[in-house]
Amino acid sequence: MRVLIFADGGRDIGMGHAVRMKLLAGAIKNNCSITFYTNKEASSYLSSDQWEVIIKPDKGQKEFIVREINRQAPDLLIFDLLDMPCDWLEEIKKHSSARIVLFEEKREHVIHLCDAVINGIYGGLKSRTVQMGGAVVYEGPEYIILHPGFEKAKQLYQLRKECRTILVSLGGSDPKKLVFKVMEACRRIPDIQRKRVIIVMGGAAPHADDVRAHLTQMPYAEMVRQTNDMAALLSRADMAVVSGGITLYETICTGVPCIVLSQVEHQTETAEKFAARGAAVHLGLGECISADVLARHMSDMAADYPMRSGLHQNGKPLVDGRGIKRAAAILYDL
Fold first, then answer.
1. Which of 6, 122, 158, 198 minimizes the number of CB atoms within 10 Å of its CB?
2. What three-state secondary structure class fits 113?
């Protein structure tokens, strides 16, 4: 099956789209011939000897995409783009009979122009399948695409009574630079010297070198840059401070109690859903939270095993880590 995948990523929009599609491509690569179309910022991240990566032009993208579809004659088109333009789909459908799949799309007029929509994040925490015009919409955490390692991590993770390790991960680009606020909060936790803080910085975060410089004054902390095994890192953690994107789902899936600092408004919706189920502590938009308030919440969670245990138990049923298998099966069945 010939597959074209369109996904962007970078400092301003984050890396969630690119991360999700790279994982999906890895799951289907043995049965498909894949070409990625992306922006320059995400091209190095998506690079692989398993598929071709083509950088889209900054201007005239609709015309470029239509030409490429005509040239490649794909069987399947996958779009994971922020606010996919409706006129692109209308033009594509005039020139191609390829099946069209969108990810994280909730606009009905756009959904009606494709064959399937996979929304792991949009919708509630109860998964469902609905028909909208000619498209089937798969919605909920059952369809969230995580690295296959999380399914195993979920089975093996055991919550320890003593909080010794705190993991910090604020997305692929950390656009609000919340990591500095978390580091300042760590300095205000009385017994932080007795703990280990692991700070994970995504490849699209331009301030990683500044973070590394600050860590010279924090002997209890270490930085990991652009990990390919987040499941292993989370498995070492007794609690976490995360943003409200894919990392939140990874954390809930593994079973790690967490505090959520949302980077942008739409992340607050996701985080609030988990908080309402007692599976996370959501402090709202991270840029609006002071280091003192964050330090108090981190200190309280670290010292309160019953609280961490409750978050762990409440989150366990919500994300099973098998969404990538379900998404691949949907693509094969189209």
1. 158
2. coil
208: left (phi > 0), else alpha (psi -120 to 50), else beta?
Answer: alpha
**Cβ contacts of 198 within 8 Å, gap of 6 or more:** 165, 166, 167, 168, 221, 222, 224, 233, 236, 237
Q: Give ∠ CA 51-57-59 in degrees, rounded to 5.
A: 150
Tokens 């992340």 belong to which residue? 267
Name the 3-class secondary structure at 24: helix
Specify the residue for token string 């070492």: 236
> Each residue of 80-129: pLDDT tens digit?
998 899 999 999 999 999 999 999 999 999 999 999 999 999 888 999 99
Q: What is the CA radius of gyration of the chain?
A: 20
Q: Left (φ > 0), alpha (ψ -120 to 50) or beta: where does 306 sit?
A: alpha
pTM (2 d.p.): 0.91
- Sequential DSSP letters for 26-91: HHHTTT-EEEEEE-HHHHHHH--TTSEEEEPPSS-HHHHHHHHHHHH--SEEEEE-TT--HHHHHH
For residue 97, give every residue at least 6 positions away whose Cβ sits within 8 Å of its Cβ, in sequence order, or none. none
19-76 pLDDT, tens per residue? 999 999 999 999 999 999 999 999 999 999 999 999 999 999 999 999 999 999 999 9
Backbone angles phi, psi at 302, to 5 degrees: -60, -35
* Ramachandran category for residue 202: left, alpha or beta (phi over 0 → left; psi -120 to 50 → alpha): beta
Q: Write the CA distances from 28 to 9, 69, 119, 263, integer angstroms.
A: 21, 20, 18, 31
Are the beta carbons of 19 and 150 closer than 8 angstroms?
A: no
Closest C-alpha among 145, 152, 151 to residue 119: 145
Distance, in Å, from the CA atom of 140 to the CA atom of 118, rounded to the nearest integer, reads 9
